[in-house]
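Tutorial handout. Part one gives the primary structure; part two gives the three-dimensional structure as tokens.
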Amino acid sequence: MRIAAYWSQTVRGILRIAYKLLVNDRAKFAALLVGITFAVFLMVQMTSLFAGVLFRASATVVNVGASIWVMDPAVQTVASSIPMPDYMLDAVRSVEGVKYAVPISSGSGLAKLRDGTYQAVNVVGLDDATLFGRPGLLQGDIRDIYADNGFLVVKDSEFSKLENPKVGTDFEINNHRGVIVGIAQVASSGLFGIPTLYTTFTRALEYLPQQSFTISYILVEPKSQNDVARIKSAVGRLGYLALTKQEFMSQISRFYMYQTGLGLNLLLMTIMSFVVGLSISGQTFYTFVLENLEKFGALKAIGAKGYELVYMILFQAGFTALTGYGLGVGICAGLLFSAKLKVPDYAAVITFPILALAFVMVLIIAGISSYIGVRKVLRIEPFDIFRG
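Part two.
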């Protein structure tokens, strides 16, 4: 017990000295914090923007919520649907393990508003019999979607582009009359700043230009999770692709990450922010050690062990890194919050994996900075300090 108490007091004393040495020179301490804070800010900002883009890109998949999506094998994102022949719906329904399967239509239209302006819209056509994938309503009655020209409009960040319509507002879409019969809400807004309308599958086919095939996707609900593999295999033998909700979202993410410039830009920006933080903090920490070399030598001369000096360096680097990490994340979160107040459709979102990635990068910066300082301190000889 006495040894433990002595050890605890010794460590506390060493760390107290390390803290005072660190914050005594406020300019150097501020420079260390600025380097790490700026690096963390850039990493979190870029990765959160990319995460927001990926989430928005899968907005339709998230909002519809189907367990399995059947599609043409060439489909890469939910926005680039390739129509399938009508017989595929019956073929999928006949697969063992399918609880039910319904068609869905996804396309683009041009809406003419009351003031004469035009606005591009996404139109989602829901299965007439079940309305599977329908959004929750804020206003209106879902049964009114079956009325003549009935549409639901999603109230999200793009809602104002349709002049904030109300229930009963009429408009034109591809030279057809449309009437808003409900105001809906969804879990995620779209990526490209285009308002979304929901209607029945039949009306979507009537209002939107069609190719020879009409079904964009087939939404499947399996009887159990054990049937998923069987359904995917059966659909594959028909020449089409069946993906679970998470698999489809992952496919969309891979497309934007590897087949567009977003992934490369993210990687370059993350590497750049890491190099900036490492160079600033490493150089400043090395200068800090050099300027306090006499103090470390004096501590060594009065009996401080090498491992105690290592504790001091590790504490100083760790304290600075964690403080910079907190400041960087806090500043980024504050700016994102402010940006979303001004620009509601701003896509960035901070997730736990992003925070974990930034934390690991900060630990690497702290580790390299500590290594530079430890090497210099351990080589010092008290004789050389006092002789100088």
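Part three, for discussion. The longest strand covers residues 98-112. The beta strands are 68-71, 98-112, 118-126, 136-140, 150-154, 170-173, 176-185, 196-200, 217-222, 241-244.
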